[in-house]
Design brief:
Distance between the termini: 20 Å
Radius of gyration: 27 Å
Strand content: 15-25%
Bound molecules: 2-acetamido-2-deoxy-beta-D-glucopyranose
Largest sheet: 9 strands, mixed
Subcellular location: Membrane
Shape: globular
InterPro entries: Glyco_transf_92
Membrane topology: Single-pass membrane protein
Structural class: alpha+beta
Biased composition (Pro residues): 482-506
Helix content: 10-25%
Number of strands: 24
Protein name: Glycosyltransferase family 92 protein
Length: 534
């Protein structure tokens, strides 16, 4: 893949050079000029052709060399890593000796699709990434312990990179059929340099005899938290509402987190609900790499949860995938599985609906109650028009069928797997935010009231206040909501703020349909395709 691109890139450059040479040949005029021009065109054609053939040959060469060959011992002197370097799993480490920044985060043993390889999540130069090698390390009691094993790596830049200088990438190191899976791997730029990174290899397969993950087990992945993220109520709502929606586990990445949210996450981590990984990526966000290298995080999270959870949702903190007829997402997917063949589905896509924050709060929500602090209770007006799939949509992946995860859709599945576009009558993505193009004009777009999330409101309020009370002192959270000021009587009945217990009135444009979903027939099964980068 990368090599083909590389080839095309070279070919284009060659064409540009040929054009640049053209004015020089124009010394003679008239027909001569035309003749030399066509000669040049022919030359260009052969030049481009030649480059393509050459790249093909190089590619074959590379394929042959990627097979996990042991380098001859005289070539591989294998200086040991520094004594103070220990193997890490899920922390940015540098590959030294490269001209440009090259960093690695985590390593997985991936034996799907007939290959055996170490798949490393990293970040490097988007165009023409530098050549690197993988060095395998075995435990001291292993017969190959002192054997030098270094293989050339293949760097596969992750497709979603917004044309910035750096990009998330996979570093792939193939193992031979009978080669033992290393316990630790280092990525090195030159054979004789001391490695400056050691990645503990995470096995992707289950331990022998372990049962497959519960098909209802759902993990949630969130892109790196940044700007000293510190909104404790929003975080608790996210954790507790997603738990009600069926999430068993959450993975977060710590670029920068504020003190209260840090404290909350530590509490959830201590109870086994959250994995929090450091994210000290030494690349300038948006200038050098897209949004703190989020595509490295999304893919790390996908592989980290593979075979531990049957389902992985990739969402942001202001987004919720909300089913309309089922209470949980696993229930929804199980129900879908009865209606259509979802056995080979690699992902389920949900269309985006903006709930703009500028629209007024729901009048059914008590202004002085806890509900008024919960985004999903307060904000029930949404744009009527949903975005089509792949534009701002989010998805739930079946990680074992996915090779490369993107932000809004899966870029690459294992052969034979594809995406299922879930019909909006079954579930949509609720996205709570301000107008996406700035200003307030978005509130003029046509909208409906959608109280689907109110089904969780009461349980969610109870759960969030319970957690808040437990953590208030330790995490210095303060008061969850301000009670009505003294002396101000509660609003008289019928004055526009009815008590929160009142059920939503009938006739809502988007109230759940009591007769059950009717959009089942309209569910589309899409074949995997190569979508354009958005
Ligand atoms: C490890 O030791 C080397 C020198 O022995 C030093 O330069 C390096 O900073 C140390 N690294 C860490 C992570 O302590
Ligand atoms: C792996 O297989 C190759 C040939 O298939 C053989 O030469 C080599 O000795 C084997 N290595 C191990 C460790 O079994
Ligand atoms: C997040 O990372 C920062 C910087 O590395 C660190 O100081 C802080 O303790 C981390 N927070 C948590 C909650 O782990
Ligand atoms: C999910 O919703 C469908 C449609 O209303 C319903 O038939 C099905 O029983 C629900 N599944 C569960 C587990 O609640």
């Amino acid at each position: 893949m990368f090599n083909t691109r590389h080839g095309v890139f070279k070919a284009r450059r060659l064409a540009a050079y040929s054009y640049a040479a053209a004015p020089g040949t124009r010394a003679s005029r008239g027909t001569k000029e035309r003749a030399s021009l066509s000669f040049l065109l022919v030359l260009m054609f052969f030049g481009v052709f030649g480059v393509i053939v050459l790249t093909e040959i190089l590619m074959v060469d590379e394929r042959g060399r990627g097979q996990g060959v042991l380098l001859p011992s005289h070539m591989d002197q294998r200086p040991p890593p520094s004594a103070n370097l220990t193997a890490k799993d899920g922390d940015w480490q540098i590959v030294s000796g490269t001209r440009f920044k090259f960093l690695v985060f985590s390593a997985f043993f991936d034996k799907r699709d007939g290959n055996r390889m170490i798949r490393i999540v990293g970040a490097t130069k988007t165009r023409l990434p530098e050549r690197v090698f993988c060095r395998f390390w075995y435990p001291a009691d292993h017969p190959q312990h002192d054997q030098a094993v270094t293989v050339p790596a293949k760097v596969k830049v992750i497709r979603e990179n917004w044309n910035l200088k750096y990009s998330a990438c996979f570093v792939l190191c193939l193992l031979r059929a009978n080669q033992t899976v290393p316990a630790v791997v280092s990525v090195v730029a030159r054979l004789r340099v001391r490695p400056h990174n050691m990645l503990a290899v995470r096995p992707l397969d289950r331990p022998d005899g372990a049962p497959p993950p519960d098909p209802a087990s759902l993990a949630v992945c969130v892109k790196p938290l940044h700007f000293s993220y510190n909104r404790p109520v929003e975080m608790l709502e996210f954790l507790e509402l997603n738990t009600m929606l069926g999430a068993d586990h959450f993975t977060f990445y710590n670029h920068t987190i504020g003190p209260q949210v840090s404290c909350i996450l530590h509490d959830y981590a201590a109870r086994g609900r959250v994995t929090l990984l450091p994210w000290n990526l030494n690349m300038a966000s948006q200038r050098e790499i897209r949004t703190e290298g989020l595509f490295a995080a999304l893919n790390d999270c996908l592989y980290r949860n593979m075979h531990r959870h049957a389902l992985v949702a990739q969402i942001d903190l202001d987004e919720y995938i909300v089913p309309r007829h089922n209470l949980t997402l696993p229930d929804l997917l199980q129900w879908l599985g009865k209606r259509l063949n979802t056995r080979s589905a690699g992902s389920f896509s949900f269309q985006n609906a903006f709930f703009y924050l500028q629209w007024p709060d729901d009048p059914l929500v008590d202004k002085h109650g806890l509900d008024s602090r919960l985004l999903t209770a307060r904000k029930t007006t949404r744009r009527t028009k949903l975005h089509p799939h792949k534009q701002r949509s989010k998805y739930i992946a079946r990680p074992e069928f996915v090779v490369e995860a993107g932000n809004h859709f899966v870029w690459e599945f294992l052969p034979g797997h594809g995406a299922i576009n879930v019909h909006p009558s079954a579930a949509i993505l609720h996205h709570y935010r301000v107008c996406e193009f700035g200003g307030d004009d978005c509130v003029k777009s046509s909208h409906v009231v959608d109280r689907t999330a109110h089904r969780y409101k009461d349980r969610l309020s109870a759960q969030v206040s319970k957690r808040w009370a437990l953590l208030r002192d330790d995490c210095k959270l303060g008061e969850l909501f301000t009670p009505p000021p003294d002396g101000v009587p509660p609003p008289p009945p019928g004055s526009g703020a009815p008590p929160p217990q009142q059920p939503p009135p009938g006739g809502d444009a988007a109230a759940p349909d009591p007769d059950g979903p009717d959009g089942v027939e309209a569910l589309q099964v899409l074949e995997p395709e190569r979508p354009e980068q958005s």
